[in-house]
Design a protein that fits this description.
Number of strands: 0
Strand content: under 5%
Number of domains: 1
Structural class: mainly alpha
Order of helices and strands: HHHHHHHHHHHHHHHHHH
Radius of gyration: 21 Å
Distance between the termini: 41 Å
Length: 427
C-alpha cells in the first residue's frame, strides 16, 4: 500500500485511472463470476471459450495501431495529431476490409463446432470483436493524448451500461440466462453505446481539421503500420499462448474443466485495474524517455519492488478461494488450484510487464514478437501432451510457465540493451 501511495503522490493521474479501471474490471469480473452461479458448468465453459475467441479476434482486428499511436504521438509531439488522423484513416480502411472476412467466417463457424461453442456463438464472437477493436481505439486515443480523465470516464460509462444491461436481462428472463445474452451485453451492446456516445469521428473533427488531409498522411500511416505490425504480432500471440490450453479443453469436449479454468482467469484478471492503470499511465512516459540513464533508473525502481509480489499473491489467493467457496462450493472443484496459480502469475507480471515496456523506448518491439512465438509453440506442445489427461490445473500451469519464461527473457533483453547503451556513452 505504501508503494501505491508513493506512486499516486508522484503521479496524481494514477488515482483516477486506478479507480476507473477498478470499476470497469470489477464490473466485468463480478458479472462473469455471477454467471458461474446461474449457468451450468459446461455452459460456463462455453462462455469462457467464446469470450477468449472474441478477445483474440479483437486483437487481430486492431492490427497493433493502438500502441503505435501512443508511441508516435508522444515521441514526435509536433505531429501528434497528424498521427491520430493517420491511425483513424487506417482503422477505417481496416474496418472496410471486413467484407473480405466473408470466407474466413465460414471456417470460423466450423472452428466454433471444434471448440465446443457452436456456430451462433462463433459468429457472435466475431461481431463483438469488431466492436471491441473500436473500443480499444477509443482508449488508445485518450491514452496517447494523456487525456486520462476521458479514459477514466469511458471506463466508468462502460461499467454502468453493462450493469444496466444485466439488470434488464434478469428483469425480463429471471434466472434463465443464456450465454449469448451475456456476451451481447458485455462485449457488443455496452461498448457500442460508449463508442457512439463518445462520437469518435466527431471528436476528430473538433480537435483538428479532419477533413483537411495531412500531406504526409500515407507516410505517417506507413510508419504506424510498420511499427504496429510488431505490436500486432505480440498482442495476437501473447493471449494466444494463454488461450491454447483453454481451447484444447474445448476440443477435448471438457467444457466443465474449461469453466473451472475460466473462473481462475477471471479471478486473476480482477486485480488487473492497478496493473492496467500503471501501464496506461507509464507507457507514454516510457516512450518519451530522454536517455538510457532514465530507462535504467526506471527498471531498477521496479526490480526493487518485486519482493512485494509474494505477500500480495498470498493475500489475494486466500480472498479469492474464500469467495469462490461461498459462491459455488464444490461445483468447480479444479477452480481452487487454478485460482492460486493464475493469481500468482498475474501479480508477478504486474511488475515485469512494466520492465518489458522499455522495449518501446528503444524501438525494439520485434523481440517481444520472437518471445511470444516461442510462448505459443511451447503452449501448443505442452497442451497436446498434458491437457487431455490433467485438465484445468495442467492448463493453468502451462499458462504460468509460458508467461513467466517469456517475461524473464524480455526483462533480460531490456537489461542487456540498457547496459550496452550506457557502456557506449561511457566510452
Amino acid at each position: 500500500m505504501k508503494v501505491m501511495a508513493r506512486l499516486i503522490e508522484r503521479h496524481p493521474g494514477l488515482a483516477g485511472l486506478a479507480a476507473s479501471n477498478a470499476i470497469s474490471n470489477g464490473t466485468t469480473f463480478a458479472i462473469l463470476l455471477l454467471m458461474s452461479a446461474f449457468l451450468a458448468p459446461d455452459q460456463y465453459g462455453s462462455l469462457t471459450i467464446a469470450v477468449s475467441v472474441l478477445m483474440q479476434l479483437s486483437f487481430l482486428l486492431e492490427m497493433g495501431t493502438g500502441v503505435a499511436l501512443v508511441r508516435f504521438y508522444n515521441s514526435d509531439q509536433h505531429f501528434g495529431e497528424a498521427y491520430v488522423q493517420a491511425v483513424f484513416v487506417a482503422r477505417l480502411l481496416m474496418a472496410g476490409s471486413m467484407a473480405l472476412l466473408a470466407l474466413p467466417c465460414i471456417y470460423l463457424v466450423e472452428a466454433g463446432y471444434a471448440l465446443g461453442i457452436g456456430s451462433d456463438l462463433a459468429l457472435l464472437a466475431l461481431t463483438s470483436a469488431l466492436i471491441m477493436s473500436w473500443w480499444n481505439y477509443l482508449r488508445s486515443l485518450n491514452q496517447a493524448r494523456q487525456n486520462f480523465s476521458g479514459y477514466a470516464y469511458s471506463l466508468v460509462g462502460l461499467a454502468v451500461v453493462r450493469w444496466i444491461g444485466v439488470g434488464l436481462v434478469f428483469a425480463m428472463h429471471g434466472n434463465d440466462i443464456m450465454v449469448a445474452q451475456v456476451i451481447t451485453i458485455l462485449y457488443l451492446a455496452a461498448p457500442l453505446c460508449i463508442i457512439l456516445f463518445a462520437g469518435i469521428a466527431g471528436a476528430q473533427q473538433r480537435q483538428m481539421a479532419f477533413w483537411r488531409m495531412d500531406k504526409d498522411l500515407w507516410k505517417r500511416m506507413g510508419r504506424v503500420l510498420e511499427y504496429g505490425r510488431w505490436i500486432f504480432a505480440s498482442s495476437l500471440l501473447f493471449p494466444l499462448s494463454l488461450n491454447v490450453p483453454l481451447w484444447w479443453l474445448g476440443m477435448s469436449s471438457n467444457l466443465t474443466a474449461a469453466g473451472s479454468l475460466g473462473i481462475g482467469m477471471y479471478f486473476a484478471n480482477a486485480m488487473a485495474p492497478v496493473r492496467e492503470a500503471i501501464k496506461v499511465y507509464m507507457l507514454p512516459k516510457v516512450a518519451g524517455f530522454s536517455s538510457a540513464i532514465e530507462a535504467d533508473s526506471y527498471v531498477r525502481s521496479i526490480l526493487g519492488r518485486l519482493h512485494y509480489a509474494l505477500p500480495i499473491a498470498l493475500l489475494l489467493s486466500l480472498a479469492a478461494v474464500g469467495l469462490q467457496y461461498l459462491l459455488n462450493g464444490s461445483r468447480y472443484e479444479d477452480a481452487y488450484g487454478v485460482i492460486v496459480i493464475m493469481i500468482a502469475t498475474q501479480v508477478i507480471t504486474m511488475f515485469t510487464t512494466l520492465i518489458g515496456s522499455v522495449l518501446h523506448y528503444f524501438g525494439q518491439p520485434q523481440f517481444d514478437v520472437l518471445v511470444n512465438v516461442a510462448r505459443v509453440l511451447l503452449s501448443v506442445i505442452l497442451s497436446a501432451v498434458l491437457v487431455p489427461h490433467y485438465g484445468a490445473v495442467a492448463a493453468a500451469l502451462i499458462g504460468t510457465l509460458t508467461t513467466l519464461a517469456g517475461e524473464m527473457l524480455l526483462c533480460a533483453r531490456v537489461r542487456f540493451i540498457i547496459r550496452r547503451e550506457l557502456a557506449g556513452k561511457s566510452s
